[in-house]
Design a protein that fits this description.
The chain is α+β, with helices and mostly antiparallel strands. It is built from 16 helices and 34 strands. Helix content is 30%, strand content 27%. The protein has an eight-stranded mixed beta sheet, with helices on both faces. A six-stranded mixed beta sheet has the order 3-2-1-4-11-12, sandwiched between helices. The protein starts with a strand and ends with a strand.
Length: 636
Amino acid sequence: MRIGIDAGGTFTDFVVLRDGGRLESFKLRSNPQAPHEVILEGLARIGGQQDGDVIHGSTVATNALLERKGRKTALVATAGFEDLLEIGRQNRAQLYNLTPGPKRLLIPPELCFGVQERAHADGSIAQRPSEAEMKKLRGRLKKAGVESVAVCLLHAYRTPDNERAIREALEGGGFYLSISHEVCPEFREYERASTTALNAYVGPLMRDYLSELGRRTRHRVWIVQSNGGSITVEEAARQAVRTILSGPAGGVTGALETARASGTTKVLGFDMGGTSTDVSLCDGAPRETMEALVDGLPVKAPMLEIHTVGAGGGSIARVDAGGLLRVGPESAGANPGPACYGIGDAATVTDAHVVLGHIAAHQLVGGAMTLDTDKARAAVERIGQALGLKTEQAAAGILQVANATMSRAIRVVSVERGYDPRDFALVAFGGSGGLHACDLAEELGIRTVLAPRLAGALSALGMLLADRVRDYAAGVLGRSGIEKEFAALEKAALREMPGAALQRFADLRYKGQSYELTVPWHAKDPARPFHALHRKTYGYASSEREVEVVAVRVRARIKTKKPRLTERFVLERGEVERRRFYAGGKWAQGSVYRRDQVGRAWVAGPALVTDYGSTTLIPPGWRMRRDEAGSLRIER
């Protein structure tokens, strides 16, 4: 038995692959204060006598970072560079803001300590830290009451000896230790320091969470990384920074593989959950990046390229001081949730769908959850009164504003990366994705929308599809002997993951550039794939310019057994519900199908299709059918 678990902001999704290949899915309300309790409740519900593999997308590190609720952390840096995190790159994030607010630092200046040591960029060591200073440092850290320590020394990616000496001096002191040459062995001291500090900040939380989860379940637990692959709980505890985009990464894998089963590999993933929307692009394979900003902080670790915006089913609608309608990024979350959940009273995107007839009172999670439609209408009505609009007009306006935010997000991962969205299918998933997909496709010129089977839990399904993956890297700028560096990384990979398949990559750039592109390593002509990707990304390539190698990378992969994504076609007979709902800019009387009531023949909109964890809206001018993979194929 294998179990995929996606702990979202509103619901925690479970997908179970039992013996014989049968897939089951269900949802539980999330508990942000104790996420492991919800997971344990779900595992108890699954039951079974046999041990299984739990592949888990964790939001522990992400939430701790966004809410600034990590553990008290100190930074140990080369003397004179204690203010590295505060100074950063001195870039102005808001170019025309004359009075920007202060940085939200993970580590305050008073917890940044310097050590008298120095290594040169060529790998030679000019000064080693003394034993007396190490003893003094340990005492200062103890006195400061820190729980976690990030160590980032100049040029340690090239010569880690001084960092190793500090680790030996601090071990046994009760600190969680995050060492830069272990977390991010690459050049650029600010990005390396930021990644190491972030790992130290969230690492103890992840360690404690995984320890508690492992102690209370008999299953083997694996954690999904930001690159879409899974690692052991021990690795995740040491390298918590690699799980920052854990949940969304599962969605990218799920979207690509379900689309592949439907006959396409050019995919725009559109995952609209309760708190946020994640969008991604796959042109045969997911796009990856080696560096990203998370809540304004640079993170240098392999991750799928995912763009997240604060527009989900729980995004709160409000009227700002200028009288304009705003939606998100604030979310009602799991508690109190949208007004229709019966606890809170803030109008959300979900409440707008209730008012417009897209979601009925007994429609969510297979009827297990009853919605308060009167409370939803009252919440949206207050927005309408503030805007001078009727309630239905206010609800339609909430959806239009949310759509504008999500449309911009899709353009970021497509148009701004040199891709035409009209060449791709939009794969809509998450609880709310299918309700917005056709409107977004209409605006972007996309002709095909796929709403997969298990769309409401596709991220959890993607976790079942995740292979075991480890990434290894080494900075090589200005060095010779690149083959030797690759061989050392491959030796380490096979020692930790015997039998793994290995892939080589490299970060390349034109000499004089300050940014790199990661390409598959082509030993005979390394520059050839780089020129092609540079032209694709930036619109030009200069084949006459010198190309230099900045870093080398090795990916180790062990494939896991995958569930069968095609299904035995079953057409459910029975009466199709008729209901009045808002579609295509007007009210219409349309059909409401259960997914198994949709056959192979095309059915024209307006229509709604309900499933256990999601709802899909087919406006006028669009048609749908169910394909061989069980996905709804929707076309203009």
